[in-house]
């Protein structure tokens, strides 16, 4: 990423919408209010309803913060500016369907996993695409800096056919506009969009052979102050059934909690 892009991302981060999330029942051990960054363009995990951030991650975070006893507010930073804000310790944590991986762990700390995901392909009805291997030589859109991009580059190398966008909404719009033949993104996002937009005549394609399971975690600045308390609260929310309640609300099925313990 060049200097111009970094400056642009900084401006985006500074001008991001700042929204108050549901307050907790306490204020933590030191009485401070924590700031948690997100990219509110990734339904059903986080998206905007008017000026309110809603989604699975939002409800889960609220339960975790109440359990931990922290007051907090959510900041809609956008995707790439979120990582910059974490590095600069401008936010105390982030939750935005962020995959835990070794590369990110060099720079950031993570909670224990709270969601199992796998990349999936979204394409138009009648497509000849049946698996990830069929994407070779085709134009495919992804959200920049995601594991979808990483998976494609691992299979096909860095290619001009992999079209990178600021968020998934733009990546999907590229498919609808005929600019690409497919989108690669997390399964819950892909399935949610296809289900909610039947008029677009889209199909979802699973490929567990070429796409591996991933796990999302709450992300923190390296060696930050609050991850131990928040992680402890997350584990309690998962164990006491509140997590399953939130999961069923957003996905309509029981979660595989055992997978989170592996």
Structural key phrases:
alpha/beta, six-stranded mixed sheet, four-stranded mixed sheet, globular
Count of helical segments? 10
In what range is the share of β-strand residues?
15-25%
Radius of gyration: 18 Å
**Order of SSEs:** HEEEEEHEHEHEEEHEHEHEEEHHH
Given helix and strand content, the structural type is alpha/beta
Spans of at least 5 consecutive residues with low confidence: 1-27
- Intertermini distance: 35 Å
User: How helix-rich are the residues, as a percent range?
Assistant: 25-40%
The main sheet comes to: 6 strands, mixed
Question: In summary, what is this structure?
Answer:
The protein is an alpha/beta fold. The protein has 10 helices and 15 strands.
């Amino acid at each position: 990423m060049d200097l111009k892009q970094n400056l642009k991302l900084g401006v985006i981060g500074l001008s991001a919408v700042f929204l108050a999330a549901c307050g907790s029942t306490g204020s933590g051990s030191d009485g401070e209010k924590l700031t948690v960054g997100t990219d509110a363009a990734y339904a059903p995990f986080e998206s905007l309803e008017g000026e309110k951030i809603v989604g699975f991650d939002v409800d889960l975070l609220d339960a975790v913060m109440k359990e931990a006893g922290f007051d907090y507010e959510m900041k809609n930073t956008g995707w790439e500016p979120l990582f910059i804000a974490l590095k600069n310790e401008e936010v105390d944590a982030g939750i935005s369907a962020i995959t835990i991986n070794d590369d990110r762990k060099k720079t950031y700390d993570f909670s224990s996993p709270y969601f199992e995901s796998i990349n999936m392909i979204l394409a138009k009805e009648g497509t000849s695409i049946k698996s990830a291997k069929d994407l070779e030589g085709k134009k495919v859109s992804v959200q920049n800096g995601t594991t979808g991009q990483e998976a494609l580059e691992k299979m096909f190398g860095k290619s001009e056919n992999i079209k990178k966008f600021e968020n998934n909404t733009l990546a999907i719009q590229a498919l609808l506009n005929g600019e690409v033949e497919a989108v690669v993104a997390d399964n819950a996002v892909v399935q949610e969009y296809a289900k909610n937009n039947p008029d677009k005549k889209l199909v979802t394609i699973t490929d567990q052979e070429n796409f591996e399971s991933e796990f999302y975690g709450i992300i923190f600045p390296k060696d930050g102050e609050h991850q131990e308390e928040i992680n402890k609260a997350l584990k309690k929310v998962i164990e006491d059934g509140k997590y399953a309640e939130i999961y069923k609300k957003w996905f309509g099925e029981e979660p595989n909690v055992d997978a989170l313990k592996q």
